[in-house]
Amino acid sequence: MTDAREFADPNGEAPARHTPGSPCWVSLMVHGLTATEDFYGALFGWEFRPGPQQLGPYVRALLDGREVAGIGLLPPDRHLPLAWTPYFASPDADLTADSVRSRGGTIAVGPLDAADTGRLAIGSDPSGAVFGLWQAAAHLGPALSGVPGTPAWNELLTFESASAAKFYRTVFGYEEEAVISAGFDYVTLHRGGEPVAGIHGLGHALPRDRGPHWVTYFQVADVDDAVEHLVFLGGHVLRPAHDTAHGRVASVADPEGARFALLQRRQ
After folding, report:
1. InterPro entries, alphabetically (predicted)?
2. What superfamily would CATH give domain 151-265?
3. What are the per-10-residue average pLDDT scores of the chain (267 residues)?
4. H or E stretch including 225?
5. Rg of the chain's alpha carbons, rounded to an integer?
6. Which long-range contacts (CB under 8 A, 24 or more apart) does 203-212 make?
7. What distance in Å separates the CA atoms of residue 216 and residue 197, rounded to the nearest whole number?
8. What is the spatial distance between Cα 4 and Cα 50, in angstroms, rounded to a whole number?
């Protein structure tokens, strides 16, 4: 984690229903669904079962029998940058989608119903960073958190934090906490007094081949062992494991190039 704060429940249980604006799900769209299941299953110990098929083949990842993430299959003709996409809870996906559009963002998919589990939309902020909206019905989001193999944090990498924070604040009603440090541009977003996500402004250091994008941090028991296993499975190391104020972190990518991070929390 760059310099962000943790939000997982200390007892390892997700709340029954997420506060509007809080991250409530992460999902990945890939070209090779079976190979991706094999990779993440071996890395995190996930098992899989079919999920809603409105956007094509889709599976939910389970850890100890409880849902933690989703993976879907991209159409063969879609060649988009692959990335884990955070979904933010909304009491009304249609109204939130309208708010996204009115504040300079775009909605590319939906809002549409995902069977009886909820209503979703996929959009992007004014800089092009992709995120999702989720209005829960039967499916409330991850049923497990705070343990290895589960999402631990979501962080937006963008050009600068101020304008991005303003967009997300006006859409979701976040409070902001800026890091006051020369040469370090970071804002933590809060909802209901709790930190829910971070925005890191990288300026010209933002990878030109990727542009602004969200990064999901997954908790692991030992980040160095996890990196070694990831490489064995065909993944790639983008930034080697290093210590931060919140734990030991490595930036990595899966065999198809989807970027994410591994986090070993401080004891």
Report:
1. Anthracycline_SecMetBiosynth, Glyas_Bleomycin-R_OHBP_Dase, Glyoxalase_6, VOC_core
2. 2,3-Dihydroxybiphenyl 1,2-Dioxygenase, domain 1 (3.10.180.10)
3. 37 54 93 97 97 84 94 83 92 96 95 86 96 81 77 96 96 91 89 93 88 96 98 97 92 96 91
4. helix 223-232
5. 17
6. 203/159, 203/160, 206/157, 206/158, 206/159, 210/81, 210/259, 211/81, 211/127, 211/128, 211/129, 212/125, 212/127, 212/128, 212/129, 212/156, 212/157, 212/158, 212/159, 212/164
7. 10
8. 33
pTM for the predicted model, two decimal places: 0.89
Dist. CA 266–CA 69, nearest whole Å: 24
CB–CB of 233/217 below 8 Å?
no
How far is the C-alpha of 112 from the C-alpha of 7, rounded, in Å? 28
**φ/ψ (deg, to 5) at 153:** -170, 155
Q: Which CATH number fits domain 23-136: 3.10.180.10, 3.90.1170.50, 1.10.10.10, 3.40.190.10?
A: 3.10.180.10
Contacts of 79 (CB under 8 A, 6+ apart): none
Q: Which two tokens stand for residue 92?
A: 């009304």
Site of tokens 């692959």: 82
The residues facing 39 across adjacent strands are: none
Helix (H, G, I), strand (E, B) or coil at 68: strand
Least Cα distance to 259 among 239, 242, 233 occurs for 239
Q: How far apart are CA 181 and CA 184, in angstroms?
A: 5
